[in-house]
Amino acid sequence: MSKIIIANWKMYLNIENAMQYAQQLKRLASVIKSETKLVVCPSFLSLKDICKIFEETVIEVGAQDVFWEELGAYTGEVSVLDMKSLGCRYVIVGHSERRKNFLETNKVVHDKARICLKNGLIPVICIGEDWEEKRSGQRDYVLIRQLTEILQGIEITNLDRVIVAYEPVWAISAGGGISATPEEVQYVHEVIRHVLIDLYGHELVSTCFRMVYGGSVDRENIELYCELPHVSGVLVGSASTKLDIFLDIIKRI
Ligand code: PGA
């Protein structure tokens, strides 16, 4: 099964560093196995340059967020139409850092996922429980609720157009940093699969459905997740911003 690596650069790199990094990564792109898909998600201000650098390479580009309307009086927001015109193919929606810092709700994530799908961009829908929810045994409930509220009412005829990212908040390096065990990730994959079957039916889910894991993925643990047969890949934050570490991750996937 082909694997996908999504690099979430967050706000770690300034424009100059992001461009230098992208140029180097482009030169080293031969380490990417033909069955591996690589998506880089830089900051909005670097998006245009990074799309240009990776043009006509196997490396694809995603945004870290999007607004839920295409155009209008929305001060400070960024349109999906611009992302699309730059050549961006993926958008991370519902990241826990946005839920926490900007109080994004499942409804907001729903609207963002919808606008991506309408415009042919692939939303990388992040879900995940926090430590307290995990500790009190509410994990499955939280995940089922997040995913159902985000996807309900969104018609999907091809689940290849969506990626679900399981990112437990406690596992993200900036907020705890204990990576989830492969057993937990495998179990959550089953939970997500059942929610998708409820929403879209067995047939659709059995043909295609992609879940990636994110949270302190590094060169030391990448193999553990990639060996999981049903997990489609990883979402990597901090470790994706250091070229030597990221190259090791790419080689080991
Ligand atoms: P991390 O971040 O790899 O630094 O834990 C992952 C993410 O937040 O997407």
| Poorly predicted residue ranges | none
- Biggest pleated-sheet summary: 8 strands, parallel, barrel
Q: What ligands does this structure carry? A: 2-phosphoglycolic acid
Average pLDDT for all residues: 95
Number of helices: 11
Percentage of residues in strands: 15-25%
Question: Could you give the order of strands across the largest sheet?
Answer: 1-2-3-4-5-6-7-8
Helix-strand pattern, N to C?
EHEHEHEHHEHHEHHEHEH
Overall strand count: 8
Structural class based on helices, strands and sheet pairing? alpha/beta
Distance between the termini: 11 Å
What is the helix fraction of residues, given as a range? 40-55%
Give me the Rg, rounded: 17 Å
Described by the principal axes of the CA atoms, the overall outline is globular
Structure description:
This protein is α/β, with parallel strands linked by helices and 253 residues long. Helix content is 43%, strand content 16%. The protein contains 11 helices and 8 strands. It has an 8-stranded parallel barrel, surrounded by 4 helices. Helix 5 crosses helix 7 (139-151). The termini are close together. The model has no long low-confidence stretch (mean pLDDT 95). Bound molecules: 2-phosphoglycolic acid. The site of 2-phosphoglycolic acid has 14 residues, from strand 8. 2-phosphoglycolic acid (PGA) binds at residues 8, 167, 172-174, 214-217, 235-239.
Which characteristics define this entry?
253 residues; binds 2-phosphoglycolic acid; alpha/beta; 8 strands; single chain
